[in-house]
Amino acid sequence: MCAFKMSVFVLLFLFATLSTVDSVGKWSLNYIYTALSKPVELPGIHEFTAMGLMNDKQIDYYDSVSKKKIPKQDWMREKLPADYWDKGTQSRKSKEQWFKVNVNILMDRMRHNNTDVHILQWTHGCEIDQQSDGTLKFIKGTDQYSYDGEDFLAFDDANMQWVAPVVQAQPTKRKWDGVQILNQYTKGYLEKECVDWLSKFMAYEDKEVSRADSPKVYAFAKKAKTAGNVRLTCMATGFYPKDVIMQMKKNGVPLTERDGVQSTGVLPNDDATYQIRMSVQIPEADKETYECSVNHVALKEPVVVKWDGKCCDCTRVTGVIIRAVVVVVLLLTVVPCCSMLVLWKKGKIFAGKKGDLPATGIQAPLNGNGNGAAVLNMPGTKDDTSSTDSGTKDDTSSTDSGSIERLEREAMLPNGGNNLSLKKCIKIYIM
């Protein structure tokens, strides 16, 4: 029981002590995968979790319960296409199985049983320094594994080899260093592909923060259910970000809920902008001055639109006019979305071929066919004493623990300033 509590403490400590960025000019992108040897009955602690962090701020997340990679920032959701998340989900499902196998391999190597909870964690990513001229300077890359909170294996980027701080990691070090193409890929990913992704994410976030779309404001009235009354509506649409202040005024005095004002609240449009409506019921014969006032960060001063005193559907003629207005408003809302779709189809946005998913958990870049792309494939496993459901025996080699779990990567290695696809599958035994 004491060991169980210690393992849980280590897990919580690992989540709480993520690397920090101590300079405004420094940026980091890290991916953290954590697997437990068995489930624990604690809220929010799952058998497997994976998350991406930019400057220690979570940008995506996956766990063994939801089994879906999801965005954790609005700009991630809006800027990356649906297939990015679909492929990312499949990639993380594969790694979930990979971790499940290898945490058992390490338990066997460490001579641990399944009485206590044991933890295998993988962290990889890069850190850069943004120069005054906007260029990015690579500072360091990280690719390391830990077991039960202790360092197990780490990649030495400068010397392009693995470092084993414990005796139990030596077999893995020899195995991985014996496949130099893997070490070349790892170095290329840390210094090039990871930096490329970080650069993209920085641009997406910066554009999102600085983006400001002005609202279009309308004031109109339609027949109310109560005879002799109309419902006056103020609508603002097409604005971004979502924070907005809207007021309905009568003779310059703001109306409130006590006056019967109702609001839809801020709602999303299909084109990543927002809308809001407020309405109030008033007598059809009311000749007072009503207006809509909207204030937003994209505006230098509030927009004020006065109601013209007309009812949209009170007469046949005005009913035709309001239908035309509604069509125009819908076009203003829908056309930008359709335009984005057409541009995407033509390759103007997210241009390039779709690459395979890297084994590192970062999806193939949106431009080109992917830098440092790799595929993590989970074939069946079988050892001398037991087998998985779909296990197959590999007669050519085996791991120290008897497991023949295979990691297959399609390597894309750097060639000078460019990456060269070797189009080869490298079969290695992971732990």
UniProtKB/TrEMBL annotation:
InterPro entries: Ig-like_dom (IPR007110), Ig-like_dom_sf (IPR036179), Ig-like_fold (IPR013783), Ig/MHC_CS (IPR003006), Ig_C1-set (IPR003597), MHC_class-I_related (IPR050208), MHC_I-like_Ag-recog (IPR011161), MHC_I-like_Ag-recog_sf (IPR037055). Residues 381-396 have a biased composition (Basic and acidic residues). Residues 1-23 form the signal peptide. GO terms for biological process: immune response. Residues 215-304 form the Ig-like domain. GO terms for cellular component: external side of plasma membrane; extracellular space. Gene3D superfamilies: Immunoglobulins, MHC class I-like antigen recognition-like. Keywords: Glycoprotein, Immunoglobulin domain, Membrane, Signal, Transmembrane, Transmembrane helix. The keyword Transferase does not apply. PROSITE patterns: IG_LIKE, IG_MHC. The chain crosses the membrane at residues 320-344. Residues 373-404 are annotated as: Disordered. Belongs to the MHC class I family. This is Ig-like domain-containing protein.
